[in-house]
Amino acid sequence: MEKQKIKEIVILSGKGGTGKTSLTASFAALQKKQAVLADCDVDAANLYLLLHPNIQKKQPFVSGKLAQIRQDDCTACGLCQEYCRFDAVIKQSNPSRDTFRIDPIDCEGCGVCVHFCPVSAIDFKEQECGEIMFSSTQYGPMVHAKLHIGAENSGKLVSLVRKYAREVAKEKKLDYVIVDGPPGIGCPVIASLTGSSFVIVITEPTLSGLHDFERILQLINHFKIPSALLINKWDLNPEVASQIKELGQKQKCLLLDSIAYDQSFTEAQLKLQPVVEINKELHDRLELIWEKIIENIH
Amino acid sequence: MIVAVASGKGGTGKTTVSVNLARAIDKEILLLDCDVEEPNAHIFIQGKPIKQHTVNVPIPKVKEDLCKECGECAKICEFNAIVSFNTVPLIFPELCHSCGGCIKVCPEKALFEIDNPIGELRFYKNGKISLIEGRLKIAHPMAPPLIKSLKKHIDPQKLVILDAPPGTSCPVIATLKGSNFIILVTEPTPFGLNDLKLAVETVLELDIPFGVIINKNEPGKSIIDEYCQEKNIPILIKIPNQRRIAEHYSKGKILVDVAPEYKNLFIDLWQQVQKLAKNSTL
Ligand code: SF4
Ligand code: SF4
Ligand 1 centre from B171 Cα, in Å? Predict the structure, then answer.
């Protein structure tokens, strides 16, 4: 028997506001229950607003440690402050004795102070950085997450969401995982890209959009992942839209389609629905785009 | 005074607000583009950088002849950036947080530090606006060290505007920390509200005074107005939803330059920011 190969399709945009989540939700609605949906925009997750998941299981995301000085044991030698490269140790000068404390916002969790404290007065505990949720939606199973405010390790959380989504796909014998990716090109984006099968970049024709597209393409090509391009609101600036197309062509990024600015994106969002549910024309068009995506995944 | 412009998600108009505010104030302004993953402010400031330089962070390197293969370096590293199976250690530069732990712990002094480039700073000047942009190297995952090195250029005597990255995680915290006022830009949509709530939580944690701008505003009362009223959050200004504004933006034009009727809006913004920042320090 042939081993099942799950295909992961990652949807990125460089930055927000290009309609990425609305389009991801639309593909989710169009894919006829062959896919697991994974929201990897763990920083500002929005996909759930359109897919209304029914949460079936939650589990804490524990990752990364923070240092904390036990004041009773601390002899105020100040070595931790000297050794910490992140200026996380704060000294408070008092007439009787100085006190040292660690600012949890600045602490990088490297543990150098913990290791070198001569009287072992520093605790180093794992932190709960967020939550992972396993849900069902009317379009199929969904794995999503919520990173706590200011928490680090978003890359790790993204990798976990993807891993669980693949597991669900395997268990339910589904062929695809659709990943709603985070903005930017940093660690959470890298974590959502590596090892995936196909990347779709949703962009808009602004000079900023062009610049963002250029950088994200460099990243995608760095990891040698096949990619495709979908231009949203092309009519906002047709000139820049064709510059984006040209760039895509040069960089071997397949052009899927260009969609004109459409008020129904906002209307659908206000109704908390994927746009294909309220606009027949867009529904048919995006259905063709989805077919094209599937055809191009090998 | 340091004013940061932030938002829970991207594409809400942070850069629009940053550059227009900088232009409307009509004083010497230092603008820092802290969205180092996708820096865009330079598109509006235009022109070529007047100078640029690489930003490095220290990472370990092993002098193999001194290494006794004890593996202590790998034990202290919390980030799996240096690994050893009782062998000469392997180093993964993109995982290294530059904490220096392995260097300090090595009993043979077999590790030393070398520079690892993570990006660059680019300097631009246009009229009274000086822009410094951080630009993360492609495929380097960690933005905060670059943001921190960018922020070293802050002159507290001057007016500084920080264009923050989107979201609520570490690069955003690295940007916002230490600012005197935060402007949160959002849109009157469910996504906008959802992300604004997260941004508000972040800012409350940092305990910095803040206010909200509603971008792409439609006439009438929106879900953002309702939320801000309930939470007692000041709404600074509203920028109307007009295709013309989006078109100017798409061409990389500063709105107050091409449509001076908006200048008063940003002057008004600046006055409110000054007032709110001052009241909170009294
Ligand atoms: S764990 Fe590292 S970052 Fe945190 S306080 Fe200690 S030395 Fe500083
Ligand atoms: S400097 Fe710190 S993070 Fe980097 S390899 Fe050494 S112990 Fe690990």
Answer: 18
